[in-house]
Write a structure and sequence with these properties.
By secondary structure, the protein is of the alpha+beta class. 21% of the residues lie in helices and 39% in strands.
Length: 110
């Protein structure tokens, strides 16, 4: 099934960099745009306290992507330090599905 022209227009708009952060990372309209080794990945992750975590990744060139929505909030380990079990699981899934480097969108999900 081929993507519709509207889908391609939306992905092109989302993956258009607006603000450069560093050599690999930029911000598009509300979404991160990362380029590593010639692969562009658009991404966004979030933690909606107290009980939801989410991760969205997509690679426009291949059409591959994933969205992971998890019930279950962070577990506080110590003051100011938490474990994000849902995002950790999403990270493992993404590493198996999407090739290439994964960097900025893992910040804080260690």
């Amino acid at each position: 099934l081929a993507p519709s022209p509207e889908w391609r227009d939306s992905v092109e708009m989302l993956s258009t960099p607006l603000i450069r952060v560093n050599a690999e990372n930029q911000w598009g309209p509300g979404i991160g745009v990362q380029e590593i080794d010639g692969t562009t990945t658009i991404w966004h992750w979030g933690i909606n306290y107290p009980t939801y975590e989410s991760l969205m990744l997509g690679q426009p060139e291949t059409g591959n992507g994933l969205v992971v929505l998890m019930n279950g909030g962070p577990v506080m380990l110590t003051r100011g330090r938490a474990r994000y079990a849902g995002l950790e699981l999403a990270r493992e899934i993404a590493a198996r599905i999407l090739p290439g480097g994964h960097g900025a969108y893992w910040h804080g999900i260690q």
